[in-house]
Structure formats: structure tokens, C-alpha cells
């Protein structure tokens, strides 16, 4: 199919060594047990806590806490959430592998799909049908942005069907629905006999002779494909069958008796299944739904390293990702393959609008990576005005009035007259890799603030670089990233308590913009980014979810500090893995999407959340570790709904008590409501007998939410009859479990 397995393996090894390097916050490792199978063999002390509903001290919870981060890594954009089903549709470029070469410092190109020009155009993904000859040509550009076209030479003497087929992104999912196909075609005048009556487009099996659906483009007598200018044809394929697998192709075919001896050129050949919210050029439907179903409140895009580029010229240029597809030239992405730019600024913003998600727009901040490694090149201080001007133009495109601003009018011409709502802008990505953020950040911060004073601006550095700290103004936000061991996240449970005061960051809030448990606990706690077997976590496990969950409880406890979070990377095409672990894995087959244990953790936490935090007092000997908890409350009037998205009926008060047991023994828990009683309690649990369990193809729900079936009822707790209430709840919290208890207060 598109790329070889060897290419994928090489890419994992070459990028893993340099792609991320996260500075660990000093922790208290000695005071916490490791999360692994050998720990917590002693019987833990019971935990007794009390909750006072009317004691004061409540804080508004952070409504945008649970979010999503997306950059095109592991073909999560092209070949992922971008709905385009065809690979290499416009011959914009190819893949290359970056890694060490003997005798040369840093990294270099180790392997190139185009052996002469790394990332240059290739014919990969395309095959001829019926004996035609395929090649690439520069003689007939579709546009300045798309100068390379596919040339099909049809020999004399061929019979039957002739044409071209596309293999898709490691296959094409075929199921009942409407597929929108389009392509540009041009004929060669000397090689055009003028007898064409029709062109067929079809979806067909790559394993059998099955043709799932076909649509015909008719040509009237005397009509033919133009040899003077490109013509775009659009057609719908109405499909009524479900293919048994995704090993399918898309074909454009001709009757050989009509076209033998002819030559045709093709460009921008496209196939879109039904998309999320039926948007043209939109988001893959099932993956878009998975993002929304998590409970996602913010989307950070477009990166990530991928915004920075392997060079300044190959950075993510917002103005090259908008407008007609034939005017989007694509770029060399930062993860080994070319980006088509079909998934552009408008597509991201429309998805946010359709999904009810707050956009967090990352803008290029004047620093680019290099294939050498993480050290790259920056705009000089006296040229930062160019970067600022470009950002302001982008923000005008997003939010400008269509009738009074240049870029607002441009947006309107692209089909969106109304300005988008934008409240958050992130200045760069992981800029602590550079030495220049100390001058770049204040120039951009002040310039953006002057033009857009109501925007919340996010710094991508604070104290990660040993040579400097970034002074973030009050009202600003810090994006912090952590790829760590489970115990790091346990140690960080209380890290955000009083963080603003103790660090002198009054008025500064936090976005945990990238996080995941990356490896198992080790004695020294040093993360090995070469991903060694036996140490690295390749798929999110229950152990990982427990570590991440404890950290998220700490975030929920501090809504005045931590406003947003997002796991990273979020998506991986299982045919091209740049980075592991990932939140959601997928293939071309929509039935093979796997939601991880970490995904389900966030989904449960996002769904069951109140509007305000509640103070929880510890009354017994047992404290935090191995139990960890937080409580929130939602009070609704009749006809209202639960503020966090959870249950709670039509009216009344619902308390959500989240409790995680990171140990391998059950822990007795008592919850007493000192000024109230509950009439009903329900629960959701995420657990498994094996702390190393994870979800995978063939067992996609090994670690997934389930109702708690052994909860004591209110009547049992009170020792009274059915319908009575009680103020005390007793339960043995199962080992290695993530739980949400939902108390319906009377």
C-alpha cells in the first residue's frame, strides 16, 4: 500500500530519539509508592471523609478542562481526521526518514521515497488498469500550487477497461452511503481520437472482482475532454453494500475501444465519504464523532511541532491552507510525510463550530525546527514584525468583519460570512527548545494584545529552559507538557495547590496542553524517549489511565489555576506510528477504531462533573495514596440539566465524587454528608484484573466504563426501608480502579 512497513519502523526509531524532551518538575518520589504489580501488598488504612454542602469554600469548576490537541502526526490529519479517502491525490510530495548518518553530526535524510528529491512528488498509491502506462509530468500544471500531474498513456491494442485506480490511505472504507468524487482531467490534443462516450468511476475490491458501486459521466456526441484547459468533473457514488474489509480501491475507467492511443492527464483526484456534519472537504465522520463524544470542550490546533516546520519556509502557513484546494500547494510536514493542507484553518474552525468546541489557535511564533534535531532557526529580533503582521492577518481572517476588513472579506468569500468566535491564541509550540523565546514572546504578546485585548494569550514556555524563565503577564496562560511515568503524575496530584502564589504567577492560569504516561515506573524516574521494550508504554494501559487520572483530579481541585488540558498525541493511524502511546487508534476501516483506556478516563471525567467544587475533609487515619478523590456539585432547578453533563434528574442537587484506587488492594471508604442526605447513588467504574491491560484491535473494550453493580443503596446505608435517605455511604473501593459516584441528594 502507501508506505512500506520498514519505512514506518525506521520513522519510529528516528523520530523517537529527538522529537520530545520534557523537563520534569522536581517531585517527591520517595514519599510515594510506584504504581506496579508488586506494590501495596500491605492492607491500606480505611479512608473516612466528610462533605459539607453548605460550608462555603466552593469554586466554579473549569468548564473547558477536558479538551483535544491535534497536529498531523502519525497520519492523524491526512489519512486521519481529514475526510479525504484518496492518497497522493495531487502529487504534492512524499515521505522521507530523518535519522543519524555516520560521520555527519545531528540528523539527516536516511531514506527518501523519492530517491532523487526528498519529499518530492511520487506516483505512490496509483496503479494503471488494463495495461496503461503511468508517469508524472510538469508540462501541464493544474495551478501554480499544483504543478505536477499524472499522465496516463493508453497503448494501441488494449481491450476492455483501461484507467487508473487509487489504493486509498491503506485502503478505503466502503459502507452504505454517498461518496462524493471529483477529478480534474486534460487530454493531449495529438493523442485524442475524439470518440469518448463516457467515463466510469467506481469503488471496487482489491482482493476480488467485486465492484461495490459505479457512476457514469456521459459525453454527448462530439463532446470530449478538453485539451486546452483543465476540466473538473464531479459525481456522486450511491453505495448500498458494506464491503467485508477496507482493502478496496477507487477507479476511473474508460472503454479501451474508444481511447486506445490516447493520453490523459489527471490532478486533484478526490473521494469523500459522508463527513462530520456533512461538511464539504470536512472531517472523517467517525473520528470527528469520537472527538465530540469524549466531551471535548477545546481543540488546540494545528500543532504541535507540525506548526513549526523543518525550515522557516516549510512552516504551517495559514494563508496556504485556505481557499480552493487547487490553490493549496501542501508542505513538508514535521513527521516524515507531506501535508496536503486540505485540512486547513477553515476546516478546523468549522469543525469546532459544528462540534460545539472552543478553538485554541496556535500561531507560528518565529521559530522552526530543522532535520538536524530540535535546535532550529529563529526570526531575528528586528524581523519579528513580519511574524506579528502575519499573525494579525490570520486573526483578522478568523474574527474580522466581512464588510470592513480585508481578511474578513476573504473569509466570507470562502463561505463563512460570520466571524468565528476565538478567545484563546497560543504563541508557538514548545518554544523552550529555542534560546530566542525571551525576545520573541514579549514582542508577539504585546502586539497581539494591543490589537485584540480580550484574547487570552498562551505562552509555550515558563521554566523549562535552564537558561531562562518567561515572565507571563497576569491574564496570560502557560502551556505545560508532560510525558512521564505514572508516579510522576501521582506526585503531581497536589502540584497546582497554591501554585500561583508560591511561584509568583498571580493571575496566570495553566493549560496542560500535552500529557501522557509514557513508560512504566523506573527507580531513577528518568524518561527514556528511545521507547525501549519492557519500559515504554506503547498503548494506554489501565496503569497509565490511573496515573493520568490522579493528576486530572489534582487539576479539578484547582479550577482557578488549571483551565484546560489535552492528551497528546490524540490520534494514530496504525499503519504509520510516529509516536506512542496515543489516545485513539484507527485504520481506514471505521470498524477498527480503538478508544483507549485514557480516552475512557477522560470521557467519564468530562461527563460526570459538577458546576462547583466541594471541600472534602479527611476524618480518619487513611489519607491520599492509594485513594485519591475530588468532589463537585451541580444544583439544578426543575427542567434544568446537570452542569457537567452527567445525570441527576430534572431538579435537585447531585454530588459527583471521583475516587481512584492506585493500589492492588481494596480500600474501605466512608463518605459522610454532614448537612445533607442522599436518596440514590449510582456509579461508573474503569478497571481490569490486569493493571497492564489495554484496548486493541479484537478487544477494543478491555478497559472501558461499566456501571458499578455492588454499591450499597441509600436504604441499606440508613438501615431503613425503601425510599428513605441517609447521610453516610460505605464502600470498598476496588483495587486498580477509576470511579465516579453520583449521589442524588434529597
From TrEMBL:
The organism's place on the tree of life at top rank: Eukaryota
First-tier enzyme category under EC: hydrolase
Metabolic or biological pathway: Glycan metabolism; L-arabinan degradation
Protein's UniProt keywords contain Transit peptide: no
GO biological process: L-arabinose metabolic process
Pfam families: Alpha-L-AF_C, ASD1_dom
EC number(s) stated in the UniProt entry for this protein: 3.2.1.55
GO molecular function: alpha-L-arabinofuranosidase activity
Gene3D superfamilies, per database record: Glycosidases, Golgi alpha-mannosidase II
Domain called Alpha-L-arabinofuranosidase C-terminal: residue spans: 513-737
Keywords carried by this UniProt record: Glycoprotein, Hydrolase, Signal
Catalysed reaction, written as an equation: Hydrolysis of terminal non-reducing alpha-L-arabinofuranoside residues in alpha-L-arabinosides
Leader peptide range in chain numbering: 1-19
Spans through the membrane: none
Family to which this protein belongs: Belongs to the glycosyl hydrolase 51 family.
Name listed for the protein in its UniProt record: non-reducing end alpha-L-arabinofuranosidase
Amino acid at each position: 500500500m502507501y508506505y512500506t512497513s520498514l519505512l514506518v519502523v525506521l520513522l519510529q526509531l528516528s523520530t523517537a530519539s529527538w522529537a520530545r524532551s520534557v523537563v520534569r518538575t522536581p517531585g517527591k518520589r520517595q514519599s510515594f509508592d510506584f504504581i506496579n504489580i508488586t506494590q501495596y501488598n500491605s492492607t491500606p488504612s480505611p479512608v473516612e471523609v466528610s462533605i459539607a454542602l453548605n460550608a462555603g469554600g466552593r469554586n466554579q469548576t473549569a468548564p473547558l478542562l477536558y479538551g483535544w490537541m491535534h497536529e498531523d502526526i502519525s497520519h492523524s490529519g491526512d489519512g486521519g481526521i481529514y475526510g479525504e479517502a484518496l492518497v497522493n491525490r495531487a502529487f504534492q510530495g512524499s515521505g522521507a526518514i530523518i535519522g543519524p548518518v555516520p560521520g555527519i553530526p545531528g540528523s539527516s535524510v536516511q531514506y527518501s521515497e523519492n530517491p532523487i528529491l526528498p519529499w518530492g512528488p511520487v506516483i505512490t498509491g496509483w496503479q494503471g488498469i488494463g495495461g496503461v502506462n503511468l508517469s508524472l509530468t510538469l508540462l501541464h500544471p493544474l495551478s501554480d500550487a499544483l504543478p505536477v500531474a499524472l499522465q496516463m498513456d493508453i497503448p494501441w491494442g488494449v481491450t476492455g477497461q483501461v484507467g487508473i485506480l487509487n489504493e486509498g490511505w491503506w485502503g478505503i472504507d466502503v459502507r452504505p452511503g454517498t461518496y462524493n468524487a471529483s477529478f480534474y482531467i486534460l487530454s493531449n490534443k495529438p493523442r485524442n481520437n475524439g470518440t469518448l462516450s463516457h467515463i466510469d468511476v467506481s469503488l471496487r475490491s482489491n482482493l476480488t472482482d467485486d465492484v461495490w458501486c459505479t457512476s457514469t459521466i456521459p459525453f454527448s456526441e462530439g463532446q470530449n475532454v478538453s485539451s486546452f484547459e483543465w476540466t473538473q468533473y464531479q459525481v456522486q457514488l450511491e453505495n448500498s453494500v458494506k464491503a467485508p474489509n477496507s482493502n478496496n480501491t477507487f477507479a476511473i475507467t474508460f472503454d479501451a475501444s474508444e481511447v486506445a492511443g490516447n493520453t490523459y492527464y489527471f490532478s486533484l483526484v478526490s473521494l469523500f465519504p459522508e463527513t462530520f456534519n456533512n461538511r464539504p472537504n470536512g472531517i472523517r465522520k467517525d473520528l470527528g464523532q469520537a472527538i465530540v463524544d469524549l466531551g471535548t470542550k477545546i481543540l488546540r490546533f494545528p500543532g504541535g511541532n507540525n506548526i513549526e516546520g523543518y525550515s522557516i519556509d516549510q512552516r504551517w502557513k495559514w494563508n496556504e491552507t485556505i481557499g480552493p484546494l487547487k490553490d493549496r500547494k501542501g508542505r513538508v510536514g514535521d513527521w516524515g510525510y507531506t501535508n496536503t493542507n486540505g485540512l486547513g484553518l477553515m476546516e478546523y474552525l468549522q469543525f469546532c463550530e459544528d462540534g460545539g468546541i472552543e478553538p485554541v489557535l496556535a500561531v507560528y511564533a518565529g521559530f522552526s525546527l530543522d532535520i538536524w534535531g530540535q535546535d532550529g532557526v529563529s526570526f531575528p529580533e528586528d524581523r519579528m514584525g513580519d511574524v506579528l503582521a502575519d499573525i494579525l492577518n490570520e486573526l483578522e481572517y478568523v474574527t474580522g468583519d466581512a464588510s470592513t476588513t480585508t481578511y474578513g472579506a476573504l473569509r466570507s468569500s470562502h463561505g463563512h460570512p460570520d466571524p468565528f468566535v476565538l478567545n484563546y491564541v497560543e504563541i508557538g509550540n514548545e518554544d523552550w527548545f529555542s534560546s530566542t523565546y525571551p525576545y520573541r514572546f514579549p514582542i508577539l504578546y504585546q502586539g497581539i494584545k494591543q490589537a485584540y485585548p480580550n484574547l487570552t494569550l498562551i505562552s509555550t514556555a515558563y521554566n523549562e529552559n535552564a537558561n531562562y524563565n518567561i515572565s507571563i503577564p497576569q491574564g496570560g496562560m502557560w502551556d505545560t507538557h508532560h510525558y512521564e511515568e505514572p508516579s510522576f503524575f501521582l506526585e503531581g496530584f497536589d502540584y497546582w495547590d497554591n501554585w500561583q502564589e508560591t511561584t509568583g504567577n498571580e493571575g496566570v492560569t495553566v493549560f496542560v496542553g500535552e500529557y501522557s504516561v509514557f513508560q512504566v515506573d523506573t527507580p531513577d524516574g528518568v524518561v527514556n524517549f528511545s521507547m525501549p521494550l519492557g519500559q515504554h508504554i506503547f498503548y494506554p494501559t489501565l496503569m497509565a489511565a490511573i496515573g493520568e487520572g490522579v493528576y486530572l483530579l489534582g487539576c479539578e481541585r484547582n479550577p482557578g489555576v488549571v483551565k484546560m488540558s489535552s492528551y497528546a498525541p490524540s490520534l494514530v493511524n496504525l499503519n504509520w506510528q510516529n509516536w506512542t502511546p496515543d489516545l485513539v487508534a484507527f485504520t481506514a476501516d471505521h470498524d477498527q477504531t480503538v478508544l483507549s483506556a485514557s480516552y475512557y478516563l477522560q470521557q467519564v471525567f468530562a461527563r460526570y462533573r459538577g458546576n462547583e467544587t466541594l471541600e472534602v475533609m479527611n476524618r480518619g487515619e487513611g489519607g491520599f495514596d492509594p485513594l485519591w478523590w475530588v468532589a463537585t456539585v451541580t444544583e439544578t432547578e426543575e427542567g434544568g440539566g446537570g452542569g457537567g453533563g452527567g445525570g441527576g434528574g430534572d431538579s435537585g442537587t447531585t454530588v459527583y465524587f471521583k475516587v481512584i484506587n492506585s493500589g492492588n488492594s481494596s480500600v474501605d471508604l466512608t463518605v459522610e454528608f454532614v448537612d445533607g442526605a442522599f436518596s440514590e447513588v449510582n456509579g461508573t467504574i474503569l478497571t481490569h484484573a490486569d493493571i497492564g491491560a489495554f484496548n486493541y484491535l479484537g478487544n477494543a473494550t478491555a478497559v472501558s466504563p461499566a456501571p458499578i453493580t455492588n454499591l450499597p443503596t441509600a436504604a441499606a446505608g440508613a438501615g431503613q426501608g425503601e425510599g428513605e435517605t441517609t447521610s453516610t455511604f460505605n464502600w470498598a473501593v476496588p483495587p486498580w480502579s477509576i470511579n465516579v459516584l453520583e449521589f442524588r441528594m434529597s
